[in-house]
Design goal:
heterotetramer; A: 79 residues; alpha+beta; Ubiquitin-like (UB roll); 5-stranded mixed sheet; 3 helices; 30% helix; globular; B: 146 residues; Aldehyde Oxidoreductase, domain 3; 4-stranded mixed sheet; 4 helices
Chain lengths: 79, 146, 146, 79
């Protein structure tokens, strides 16, 4: 089960912050999210959005281990 | 030192602690970012981080600044959670042999924190709430260092 | 606030006092200049001012900085007399709506203080004493603002 | 009597910091200083040296009032 984390506006959009989802790859995970919430899935594909797997930024698709932590990160803004 | 904190912090105490015992440093620059009331349109600012990941990403850039500007030391403290107008959001201190390096490194770190560090910022006001993303100015400021 | 002092001062207390009650400022930049030991070649730094004239000249430039960078406020404290390595020589704080103005004004004021403000600086060391005049770098830094 | 002030290295060079000297103009004052201490007078003409009369920087010669304060300022360096 991947541990899926939503940050910033994604959390407000989805109505949840953290979920366990069984997915073998990032693309599987995106498809499962889209089936449940098309609006969220579209937002996750937006400009400037980054994805971290096990706290490292990744590009494109990748296989997910059973204990993977997947975080969807909207454009960042601190200070 | 890189630290996230949910509690208000004391920039003056951080500056003194950071400056203490430096007999070869010459120059300490600091920046304190303070939550603005925006004439009443913002009542509370809410900052979210990704614990662990956020500190590690800041650390990566801070080490880059240390090498690029020949820093003797740095300190970065960032509030998370709910912040009232007038409270400090972020404190950055840099120490170097001479002032140019200290200023430039502090400026560089702030540009990074404003536009690329893993934080998400929501403004709460009388008209509701909104997520804030980096401005065009923030992105242009950051690109000065490329 | 512009002040000369013969006694050691507390930069952290100045930063906190300066930042207090600012709900529209957003950005406070500071610079603290610290006396360097120069690996033992300087044991004491001695700073001389022209009381009255020095504060007035600094005030003239600080008002220029206020207008040029749209500062909300500034504070400048400068030690005079004998200063030991590790002690603060100068503290400059600038407050503005956004960070770029605060950083630039602080940088501008320090370039002025290093190269043009009415202070005279003598280094005392094991090999005797010498008067220090602005370096070529100090003059080049100052000329960036012309 | 003009009140003459020497700052920085001028004070070390002359061996005094403040003197009352009767002079009707800056050029008279420079001549009197040169008669007493040629080395000091030469240093006061050096590159980057400024003169303040009654706490305002002046260029060239000027008449001095009976209570004028004249300060000779070596190149400045703070911070």
């Amino acid at each position: 089960m991947a541990r899926v984390l939503l940050f910033g506006r994604f959390r407000d959009l989805a109505g949840w912050r953290e979920r366990e989802i069984a997915a073998g790859s990032l693309s599987d995970l995106r498809a499962l999210l889209a089936a449940g919430d098309a609006e969220l899935a579209e937002a996750l594909e937006g400009k400037g959005v980054q994805v971290a797997v096990d706290q490292a930024i990744v590009k494109g698709d990748m296989a997910l281990s059973a204990s993977a932590e997947v975080a969807f990160l909207p454009p960042m803004s601190g200070g | 030192m890189i630290r996230l904190t949910e509690a208000p912090f004391d920039p003056g105490a951080l500056l003194n602690e950071f400056s203490q015992g430096r007999t070869e440093t010459g120059a300490v620059a600091t920046f304190t970012g303070i939550a603005r009331a925006e004439k009443g349109s913002t009542t509370v600012l809410e900052l979210e981080a990704y614990p662990g990941f956020t500190e590690a990403e800041i650390g990566r850039i801070a080490e880059q600044a240390r090498r690029r500007f020949g820093l003797h030391d740095f300190a970065i403290l960032h509030r998370i959670g709910k912040i009232a107008p007038g409270e400090a959001i972020v404190f950055v201190a840099t120490a170097a042999g001479h002032r140019r390096a200290a200023f430039e490194a502090c400026d560089f770190l702030m540009d990074y924190l404003k536009s690329k560090a893993p934080f998400w910022k929501k403004e709460h006001g009388p008209d509701g709430e909104r997520w804030v993303e980096p401005t065009a100015q923030d992105l242009a400021d950051r690109d000065r260092w490329n």
